[in-house]
């Protein structure tokens, strides 16, 4: 594995001689804009592996994306190589359909210790709840970013990650002739503790999430990529493109249903993805 090859993959040409916050943020933003959050391997008949070399080959050399465990494990290697103090953490992702958190961890994120402060980095949540900058690990303080206002709330050693989403101007040509305005909303994203984790602790959930019949990742094919001013995401056949804060503290959201013959071209042009095997999109209801 070669750090220069990774930098070429994310089009990063900045300095990396000093492990400081500015460099950390710059590399992070290049990563999330170049590497999609996606689970398409599951829907191409491929297995998602949790060893670093296969992840590196997939994301860096084959120019694919990955889900949380792939993206953040790769990023941990990058940052450790550059001299950052990195700890793996485990989270439980909030399930809005059940208004509950799972019993076991099902998400990998990173803690960075830098100049006496702790930061949380997560390059593998994707969709509209993807942070764009490392977040300082402090409770009860709003941390505004381009996608919206993020914050942590700590209660008895458990940290809750939340996002306040702006109002949204939703244009869906396939179902409506006039846009719909959705109100601002605060959404729980996940909870975590500061207990250090080893990658071996994620092997069980990595296997479960790609095989269990009730797994969201089995029920839905997903691909998202952060852009300079928003996000693109493809769930099943539904393509959503968001421009953050396009006017009056409101996001512009455009939704379009794709035809089968548009999928390959859309993945290539919108997400810079070319798949080796036949992709079968899926968008089933969760629960």
Describe the fold and architecture:
23% of the residues lie in helices and 31% in strands. The protein contains 7 helices and 15 strands. α3 (52-61) crosses α4 (68-81). The chain is of the alpha+beta class. The protein has an 8-stranded antiparallel β-sheet with strand order 5-4-3-2-11-8-7-6, covered by helices on one side. The model has no long low-confidence stretch (mean pLDDT 94).
Give the topology, please.
Layout: H1 3-9, H2 21-34, E1 37-38, H3 52-61, H4 68-81, E2 85-93, E3 107-114, E4 117-121, E5 135-136, E6 143-145, E7 148-155, E8 158-165, E9 167-171, E10 180-182, E11 185-192, H5 203-209, H6 216-219, E12 222-226, E13 230-235, E14 238-247, E15 250-257, H7 263-271
Parallel strand pairs: 9-15
Antiparallel strand pairs: 1-12, 2-3, 2-11, 3-4, 4-5, 6-7, 7-8, 8-11, 9-10, 12-13, 13-14, 14-15
